[in-house]
Specification:
The radius of gyration is 19 Å and the shape is globular. Helix 4 runs antiparallel to helix 5 and helix 8 packs antiparallel against helix 9. It has 10 helices and no strands. It is mainly alpha-helical. The protein starts with a helix and ends in a 14-residue tail after the last helix. The relative contact order is 0.08. 77% of the residues lie in helices and 0% in strands.
């Protein structure tokens, strides 16, 4: 995954940032530290994304299980780096969003939502956090929030709305076989809403924005 936004932030920090690196004492600012931790975590996630694809294609259950364990350990390490990034620079919106992603993948939904909420406090229209947060809401069966997120993304970032649509359809299929506390009527109503929104989406074009959004 490319880290265009975060690198731009480092560049836009301009003279003071580069001066601190070139200073006679060789000191680094907290933002410099945050960027390093963020990029370290992103490197981890790039490798984990490839491993996740290999795991899905692996036919041997034991090998797939080992891959899953390795992914979990990698996510824990990435989350730790994102945590360090946010502590060094509490305004680094991308770090909070990616922290939410790693925590969500670890099944730590309340912590994940707190990270997404912080990202959206810093930048309310940050679409990766909106989509990722909606994924966490699906995991918690908070369907009204998921609907709101989809409508917001559909009007502002269609590729991410499409990604959320895929997740919503998968959620419906999973809950058909395992309701996990979801009322049958509630599930039917949400399934109909998803079908309606998919029909509407199919009538309008999706414009690719070159997003580096991680979809797993």
């Amino acid at each position: 995954m490319k880290r265009v936004l975060i690198m731009l932030m480092a560049v836009l920090a301009a003279p003071a940032l580069f001066a601190s690196r070139a200073g006679s004492m060789g000191t680094r600012s907290p933002h410099d530290e945050a960027v390093e931790y963020y990029n370290s975590a992103e490197h981890r996630l790039e490798k984990l994304t490839k491993l996740h694809e290999e795991m899905k294609a692996e036919a041997d259950p034991e090998k797939a299980a080992r891959m899953k364990e390795k992914i979990a350990r990698g996510l824990e390490n990435a989350a730790a780096d994102f945590e360090r990034a946010t502590k060094n620079d509490p305004n680094l919106v991308q770090a909070f969003s990616e922290l939410g992603f790693t925590l969500r993948k670890l099944g730590r939904y309340p912590e994940s939502l707190a990270a997404y909420d912080k990202a959206l406090d810093l930048q309310p229209g940050f679409s990766p956090a909106i989509e990722y947060r909606a994924e966490a809401m699906l995991g918690l069966n908070q369907l009204d929030e998921v609907k709101k997120a989809y409508v917001t993304l559909f009007g502002g970032d269609r590729p991410k709305a499409d990604a959320l649509m895929v997740s919503m359809k998968s959620w419906v299929a999973e809950r058909r076989s395992n309701p996990a506390g979801v009322d049958a009527r509630q599930l039917d109503d949400f399934a109909k809403w998803v079908q309606q929104r998919e029909t509407i989406g199919g009538q309008t074009s999706s414009i690719e924005t070159g997003s580096t959004f991680r979809s797993w």
